[in-house]
Each structure stands twice: as C-alpha cells, then as structure tokens.
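hey m, so remember when u said the tokens were messed up on ur end? i reran from scratch. heres the input so u can diff it against urs
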Amino acid sequence: MSLKAFHIVFIVASALLCLGFGVWALTGDGALSVAAAAVSFLVGAVLVVYGARFLKKVARTGYIAGGKL
C-alpha cells in the first residue's frame, strides 16, 4: 500500500472516529458533553472536506485514474 493510499484510509478512519465520538458524546449529560460533541463534529467535517480535496488533488495527478490506489 502506497503512502497516498494509506493517507486516504487514515483520513477516512479519523473522520469516522470523530463522527462516532460525537454521537457517543451526545448521550452524556451536561454542557461539556455537548461541547465535546460539537468539537468532534466540527473536526470530522473538516477531515471530510480535507479528504475530498486530497482525493481531487490525487486524481488530478493521475494517481487514482491509473488504478494504482
């Protein structure tokens, strides 16, 4: 597995972990749980945007189109 492919897998795993933690944090009580969920959702959204931009950049270089992912 190449470094670019690992980077994509790591971004997806990190985004899913952030979103899952945000859902879990919403089950707690208090303002701290809501704040933790909000921060987690924000970081997850940033990771999704970053991942999409990275995929677009990698696809533009022909790396994914060549089937080398």
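this time it looks ok to me. The radius of gyration is 15 Å. if urs says something different then somethings off w ur setup not the seq
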